TrEMBL record:
VOC domain location: 1-126
Alphabetical list of InterPro entries matching this protein: Glyas_Bleomycin-R_OHBP_Dase, Glyas_Fos-R_dOase_dom, VOC_core
PROSITE patterns: VOC
Keyword Iron listed: no
Keyword match Nucleotide-binding: no
Organism: Afifella marina DSM 2698
Signal sequence, start to end: none
Gene3D superfamilies the UniProt entry points to: 2,3-Dihydroxybiphenyl 1,2-Dioxygenase, domain 1
Domain of life: Bacteria
Keywords: Dioxygenase, Oxidoreductase
Protein name per the record: Catechol 2,3-dioxygenase
Pfam family, one: Glyoxalase
GO molecular function, one term: dioxygenase activity
PANTHER family, per database record: GLYOXALASE FAMILY PROTEIN (AFU_ORTHOLOGUE AFUA_5G14830) (PTHR35006)
Length: 129
């Protein structure tokens, strides 16, 4: 079972702002932030709900990042649409507009955006309409 996941960001400030805007429609916000003084070298923001950070964005002092795919659960299809629109307004790039993906299963409704570092970020709802 995964407790939390973190990704690296070339521009921590831009990435944090992107995720603040993109994840708000999914009910997620910054729960915890740490600075270089506390970590010994990087900044980080933990996003989540109900007081528990589960998704972290952190600066990378050496500038190295690797592309990942992260899918966030959405409570309904409207939240998937809202995520997609918020992410694009926040500077994300389209990587798959909201819609059904029946090749996964009949009720798979998802949307994909690329974050400022090229990570593939998805919101998905598995419920029928």
């Amino acid at each position: 079972m995964i407790d939390h996941l973190g990704i690296a960001a070339r521009d921590y400030t831009a990435s944090r702002l992107f995720y603040e805007r993109a994840l708000a429609p999914l009910g997620m916000q910054v729960i915890m932030a740490v600075g270089k003084e506390e970590t010994g070298g990087y900044e980080g923001a933990g996003f989540g709900a109900n007081g528990k950070p589960c998704f972290w964005v952190q600066s990378m002092p050496d500038g190295k990042v690797s592309g990942v795919h992260v899918a966030f659960a959405a409570p309904d299809r409207a939240a998937v649409d809202a995520f997609y629109n918020a992410a694009l307004r926040a500077g994300g790039r389209d990587n798959g507009a909201p819609g059904l993906r029946p090749h996964y299963h009949p009720n798979y409704y998802g949307a994909f955006v690329l974050d400022p570092d090229g990570n593939n970020i998805e919101a998905v709802c598995h419920r029928p309409e």
